[in-house]
């Protein structure tokens, strides 16, 4: 291998690492937004980020939806997000929109899809924290797993193969249905920008995994 070839390989490796870290960061942000409403610090960080996050994959549609989220964060307060989150995803009794994969894949909570996710987590050596009441099929929990599979240090677990399998098995079958439910709810306004970012980002992820 010539010096130029070695330099090109190193450059491609660095680019791939930067892209993976950006993917992991975006999964982490979406996990945070779906786990609980953002506080004012997070909203300010989103506004201050400009096009940085949205341009991380080089995809113009992703830039557009990121800018929409930035606009929603800029023109609202943390209390607005909390009220909408509580009314839409918590509510009294049955929420307006469920954030659990089992509901969309099986029609009910705590069904077979949840058991299959738990089996996958066992294979990775992962388990849910006792301090978290949400089940493992919550969209935020699944996004956190994806972040770990991208950015974790154990290459036996955190690798592209596991990312593809976990995404295709546990996220891909239902994320569009979740986004459709959010988009169809007339009482949801702010989280429509989160839905749009989620849909676009995961579509890009799916296309990338299909190329493997």
From TrEMBL:
Matching Gene3D superfamilies: TorD-like (1.10.3480.10)
Keyword annotations: Chaperone
Domain of life: Bacteria
Keyword field contains Chaperone: yes
Pfam families reported in the protein's UniProt record: Nitrate_red_del (PF02613)
Protein name: Molecular chaperone TorD family protein
Organism: Polynucleobacter sp. UK-FUSCHL-C3
């Amino acid at each position: 291998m010539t010096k130029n070839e070695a330099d090109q390989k190193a450059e491609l490796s660095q680019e791939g690492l930067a892209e993976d870290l950006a993917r992991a960061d975006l999964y982490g942000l979406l996990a945070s937004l779906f786990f609980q409403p953002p506080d004012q610090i997070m909203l300010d960080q989103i506004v201050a980020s400009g096009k940085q996050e949205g341009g991380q994959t080089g995809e113009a549609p992703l830039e557009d939806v990121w800018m929409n989220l930035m606009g929603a964060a800029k023109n609202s307060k943390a209390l607005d997000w909390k009220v909408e989150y509580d009314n839409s995803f918590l509510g009294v009794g049955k929420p307006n929109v469920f954030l659990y994969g089992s509901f969309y894949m099986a029609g009910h909570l705590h069904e077979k899809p949840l058991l299959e996710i738990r089996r996958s987590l066992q294979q990775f050596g992962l388990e849910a924290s006792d301090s978290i009441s949400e089940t493992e099929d919550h969209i935020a929990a699944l996004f956190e797993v994806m972040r770990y599979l991208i950015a974790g240090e154990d290459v036996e677990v955190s690798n592209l193969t596991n990312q593809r399998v976990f995404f295709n098995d546990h996220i891909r079958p239902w994320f569009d249905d979740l986004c459709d439910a959010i988009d169809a709810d007339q009482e949801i306004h702010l989280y429509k920008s989160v839905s749009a970012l989620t849909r676009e980002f995961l579509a890009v992820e799916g296309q990338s995994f299909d190329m493997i």
